[in-house]
Amino acid sequence: MNRASSVVILLVLAGLGIGATYLVQQRSAPRIATEQRAIDSRNLLDLLPADSYDNQPLDQPLRLDNVVLSNSTLLGGYLATKAGQPAGVLLRSQTVGYAGSIELLVAIGANGKLLGVKTLRQSETQGLGARIADWPNAWLGGFTGKSRNEPADNGWALKQDQGQFDQIAGATITSRAVINAIHDALRYFDEHRQQLIGDNPHE
Hints:
- The chain is of the alpha+beta class.
- It has two domains: 1-45; 50-197, no CATH class.
- Helices cover 35% and strands 20% of the residues.
- A five-stranded antiparallel β-sheet has the order 1-2-3-4-5.
- A hairpin with a 4-residue loop joins strand 4 and strand 5 (114-121).
- The chain is elongated, with a radius of gyration of 23 Å.
């Protein structure tokens, strides 16, 4: 076999390999997308009570794209509905902690009250601020039921700053950043309620 024939055979084999890889990827893509969707759903929707919505919130994204607030940035959000009526929103919020950015998911009911908060990403100090990522998280759970004005604006701070909230032990900066981001999200919801969920009055 001469050199030219060998090159042709190698090119044919390479082409077949590339083609086979492409076919496998094409056939696997829907299954991978479905599995990723299920992971995203578990990760993002577990803040919402299971019986509080009947739509697929991830299919109803809110028109939020890097909305800069006083202490944080909204990266996006989703609308939950039940029987066609708004049930609440999920807002993805990013703030800056002690060691870097912290991405939170803030769930707010249609009545403006906080349904829950969880950490999606963080880079805080292990054993201190990184505890913000524990799930379930007792410290974050302490904000459930709060709203923009409950407590009043000056209450949305650490006790050592004359506010109403304890801090994560050893993580003052992380705690302040998260409190401010949660209050930002509640304030944004309150001020943009109609844009987010329509004109239903607070319950």
